[in-house]
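Methods: example folding runs. The two proteins below were folded one after another, and each record is reproduced exactly as written to the output file, sequence line first and structure-token line second.
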Amino acid sequence: MRNLCLYFQIHQPFRLRRYRFFDIWNNHYYYDDYLNESIMQRVSARSYLPTNRILHELLKESGNGFKLTISISGLAIDQFRRYAPEVLESFQELAALPGVEFLSETYAHSLASLGHTDEFIRQVKAHEQVMDEVFNVKPQVFRNTELIYSDEIGAVISGMGYKGMITEGAKHILGWKSPDFLYCNSINPRLKVLLKNFKLSDDIAFRFSNKGWVEWPLTAEKYAGWLQNLPEKEEVVGIFMDYETFGEHQWEETGIFDFLKAFPGAVRQETDFQFSTPSEIMQKLQPVSEISVPWPISWADKEKDLSAWLGNELQDEAFKKLYGLEEKVTGIDDPDIQRDWNYLQASDHFYYMCTKFFSDGEVHSYFNPYDSPYDAFINYMNVLSDFELRVKSLVTEPAPDSETVKLTKVLKEKEELIAKYEKELKRTRMALARTKKRGTATSSQSITRTTKKNVSGKSPGKKKTSSK
């Protein structure tokens, strides 16, 4: 039988309050608690809780036939703890059932994998710890923020002991190849790579409620027929989407929950697919080839690249300033600084600065608390300026050891001695130059007198005497 991997992403950032220029150094609390709690309560009621109830029933009814995969960012877990503990409990109940696999990711849902390897590894380890504490699981497969992947990122993850990653089946990377196979990392082939079938995924995540779509309305039976009509040689299909697809992005009135309830049965009855988790797929299947991704890809927008987060000067400047503090923050043992360091790294802050409104504006405006990308940039940079001042105030320059002091003194004495000799040498050169100048002038006068004498045959200055 062929394999169907159903994967959901869960993440909520700590959105920032309106932070003015005059708040810098006067108020060190950056978060809009009212907005964060309101959004969490709304999404919990519309999406998380009802979806969890449905999935819980499907898992219990199907025995071992229905399986799914979930990843939850550390920031989402922090928000569940603060604003919606009942949601966290419902996810813990799911984790206790067979057929559910939890993936690893960065704690802060950050962009640290893009050139900041030490911070990236730190966050992955922090997420591993919270997954063990909250769900009693040790993930074996990794998914990066927004499915960002490259050859180098995959090699780092492989070095941490993971056996696989999931990412986007981007057309510009695959070319003629299909996303419906298992691949491997081009640097370290031991890391297996499972891809998203973005067309089939987006049919549910984005087009489900679009009445102008030629396939509307979408039923579970119709969708199962599409799966069955895929070429028989294609052995694994990855259906990846946000958890909020159910109830929030696609409201209950669209019939999305009815679709979800009917989906496992339709797959079992109408197709030769079986539900599998990434770990099971990577254990059963062998990669058909390497996948070469020299430049990072993601699952965002039409371009499937990094332009949603690092596509303009605003985003680049904010990213550079944030990670310019990395070395200093690492050495600070302060829980508030470390909390803010994590929360300020959330990729959402950069996403809000995106100016790609023409092609993907509706997506970028969702859950966005700002009126424009420029408002997002100014607000974030104000917060970051205050954070930078706090960091610098806590950084203590290391005291030099005795050997360093001794060497510094020796170098200083040598520099003073060199300066003294240079001054004396300069004075000597000037004296020699004056002497040489005087000598040159004297020689010139002598030569002139001699020349005149030779021409007249007489010594200059003597009168001619007449002979008698």
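Second run, written to the same file directly after the first:
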Amino acid sequence: MKKFLLLTLIVSLCSLSFAADEPAKESKAADRVQAAADVLNDIQSAPDKGIPQEVLGSAECVAVVPSMLKGGFIVGAKYGRGLASCRTPKGWSAPAFFVVTGGSVGFQIGGQAVDLVMLIMNKDGMKHLLSSEFALGADASVAAGPVGRHAEGNTDWKMRAEVLTYSRARGLFAGVSLNGAVVKQDKDSTREFYGRMVPFRTSLIGEIEPPATANAFLTTLAKWAQEAAK
């Protein structure tokens, strides 16, 4: 009898522990949604330091990685988790969660956390994104994006790349090259956020309704995209 009661107690505790972990897991993905919204707000609110309106207004999809980790000496390593949304006839799509990993060669000392923004500029770039795994610079051409409120004098971005990339570290915002980085679906975060596996394509072409927890990012994105279109 005592053994039975002890076993029952252990099972109950395990169940409670598992249940307690679930909201924490969900909050990680939800927190990333809010953090991505904050990154966009901070960048676009900075006078003359944001993504040019012409560039943002032309983007097919917008992806944000809050606090991407970057470090190393001479050879740098990058790792981050983020989310993306694409334009659809109904507005911006439900977010798709991804992981970006890769190396870069350059003069880098120490580690730092950076915010990363990627703009997918055309249908070819969107096709790569919908595949749920692609390499920047290999599968999809990539270039550092122009910075400033307007980019009338710089039309190279229209022809140079399928993906334009930006980073912000220690308050400094600039275009950055991410050649060699690999973007692929973050299946763990997808399951945490949606409660089930949702393919990249299903989210990004608007086949599912975005949950309420996506509103922070989607409303912020819609706000700045609408501002850029004026």
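Comment on the second run: The first strand starts at residue 61 and ends at 73.
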